[in-house]
Amino acid sequence: PPPLSQEIVSGESEEESNGVNLMEFSDEILLHILSYVPCTDLVLNVRRTCRKLATLCLDKSLTHTVLLQKDYKVNKDKVKQLMRDIGKEIYQLNMAGCYWLPSSTIDHVTRCKNLVKLNLSGCHVTSLRLSKMLSTLQHLRSLAIDVNPGFDASQLSSECKATLSRVSELKQTLYTPSYGVVPCCTSLEKLLLYFEILDRSREGFMLSGQLMVGESNVPHYQNLRVFYARLAPGYVNQEVVRLYLAVLSDRTPENLHAFLISAPGSFAETGATKNLLDSMARNVRLDALQLPKAWINGSGLLQHLKFNNPFYFSFSRCTLSGGHLIQRVINGGKDLKSLTSLNLSGCVHCLAPESLFRKAEDDIDSSILESLVVSCCNLRHLNLSAAHHHSPESIGNHLCQLLSRLKHLLSLALPVCSITDVAANVEKPPTASNLVPQTFGRKVRIGIQTYPRNLADQANQKIESSVFWALMASLRFLETLEIIGSSFSSAMPRNEPAIRNSLPPCVRAQSVGDSEVAAISQLTYLQSLTLAQLPNILTGSGLISIGLQCQHLRTLSLANLGMMGKVVYMSALVDMLKHCKCLRDLRLEQPYFCAGAQFFQALSHCSSLQRLCIVSRSGTLQSDAVMSFMANCLEVIMCHMFMGESLTVCKNLQQSIVRSFQADRPALNVVIFPLLHEDLTEVIRDVPMRHLDEITLFKSRVAEEPPNLWW
Q1: Residues in domain F-box (predicted)?
Q2: Which CA distances in Å does 454 have to 255, 451, 495?
Q3: In the chain, what are the domain boundaries?
Q4: Digit-coded pLDDT (tens) for 98-111
C-alpha cells in the first residue's frame, strides 16, 4: 500500500474536486485524526507533505506519548531518526515487546531527556546499557525492564542509581533469579513482578532459586501501594518470589491497597506468608486482592481482611463457596458498586451455598448469583470460566438471565455448559449427534441437520426465548467474549509435552452449537472472541453471521469445535474470513486441520492480519499455500504452526518464510514445528514473550489482571 503521506495528498486532491478540502478542517479535528496515525509515520512521513501538517504533526498532544509497542514496521534507523527529531518532546515512551530491535537501539533513548515513563519490557538491554541510559533520565518516575541471565547490579553507576531512587513505578520481568533494580528503587509505590524463570538451563542443569552473590540487598517497600506478582509454572519462580515477600512479612506498608499474586498450581503457604497476611488483616484496607488458592482454601483469611473501595477481586481456582463469597467478600449483600473486575475462573463452588458435600456438576444456587449481580452492578469484566455452572429449571433464575442485568459489561468469560437452555435440554431426548463420542477414534456417519446460512433465516429459526440469545441482545457493548468448555485443555501447555488426549465435554454442553454461535453476531462492538469445545457445531454457520455483523473483530480464537475427527466448520470458516477486514490475531486449535490452499486464500482477505497460530494434532499444511499467503498478506509478522507434519517439512517451510520475508518485515517471528515432537518445549522457550502470552498459549484472559495495571 502507498505511504500515508501519499494517501493524504491524493485524498486532498479528490476532496478538492468535490468541493471539500481536508486542510480546511479545524486544527482540533485534524489533530484528532492524526492521533490515530503511528508516531513514526507522523514524524518521518506525514509532516513532510505540507507546512500545516508539518506544524500539526509536532504538536505536543501527538509527541508527548510515543507508542512503538506494536509498530512492527519500526526498525533501528527509524527509532534513531525519531529520537533525533522529537526526543526532547517525548515524556512517555512505550517500546514494550520490540524484541526485533538490536540492543544498541536503546542508546538513542538518551536523547529523551524529559522522559517520565519508559517501558522496555521485551527489549534487549544489558546492565551497562541500562546504566548509561538511566544516568541521563533524571525525570524518570516509571520504568519497565527485563532482567536476563548475566544481569549485574554492580555495573550500575551512581548516576543510574540516583535516577532509580526517584522511580515510583517499576515493572520487572525476571528470566533469572535476581532482585534486578528493586533494591535501588527506594521510593517505590507500585511494583509489578513477572517471574519467567525456567527450572532448567538450556544445557539441562537444574537452576536454584537462591539469588546470586551480591544480590542480598533489601528492597524498600515502605511507600508501596501496589504489589503484583505473576508466576509462570516452576518451583524456582516460587522460591524467588518468597525472597521478595520476606521483607513484606517483616513490615507491611501502611499505604498498601493492592496485593496480588497469580500463581499456577500449588504454591504452599509458609510461616512468613502467614505472618504477612495476618499483618495485612490488622494494618491495611485493600482495593484489589488476588492470592494463591492454597492461601485461601480452608482458612478464615477473607473474614479478617478489610476492604476500602475494591475495584478488583480474583479468586481463580479457589475452592471458595458461594456462601463464603457472599458473607466474607460481599459482606451479605453489601453495596460493591466500586467493583469493576471479578475473576472467579476455576471456582467450581463459587455459585453454591457450600462446597463440602456438593458435586461440581450440581445446579448452582441462583440466589447467590443474584446477590452478586445486585451488589456488583457496575462490573465491567467478569470471568466464570473453567467450572460447571448449571442453572436450575426454575423460570427466571437462569445464569444468562441474571447476567443480563449487568449492563456495563465489557468482557465476559463463561463455560459452555452455562449457556444451554435448560428447558430445551430437559424436554428433548439426546440427538444422534449428542451420542457421538468426542474422541479421535473411528468416524461415525450421522445425519446432519441443514442449517441456513442467511442471518435472517437463522434468527427466525432460533426460538426467541433462548436465554443465551437474550443475553447477547442485552450486552450490546460487550467487546470481549469467551465461551470455553469446562473440561477443555489446550494441546500445547506451557512447560511440558503436548497433551495427547482431551477430556470429553460436559453433558450439559452437548446441545450448544451453531445457533448459539449465531447469537453472538448481535454483539456489534465485539473485538475479541474465543470459542472452545462446543460439541454440537454441525456446520459452523454461526461463524458466517459473526463475520458479517461483527465488523470490529480483531482477535479470534477457535478450538475443538464439533466432532474431533473432522473439521466440520471449514467451509463456514472460509466464508467468515472473507468478511473479517479488521482481524489482526487468529488462533486455531483443531485436530486434523488442513491448512491448505482453500483456507489460506480465504485468510488472504484479512488484510489487517498480523499474527497467525495453528495448533493441530495430525494436522497438515501445504507449503506453497503458506508462502503465497505470506506474500499476499504484508502485515503478517508472526506465523506459528504446530502440526502433524515431519520435522523436515516444518524446518524447510520455516527457513523459506524467513529467507523470503525477514528483510522487509523486521519483526517477523516464524515457528513451524511438529506438535508432538519431544523438543517442543525447547522451541517454545525462544518465542518472544509478547506472542507467547497473547496468542500462542491458550488461556482465559478476561479479568486476568486488574484493569489499567500498567499502561
Answers
A1: 19-66
A2: 58, 9, 44
A3: 399-420+466-492+503-695
A4: 999 999 999 999 99
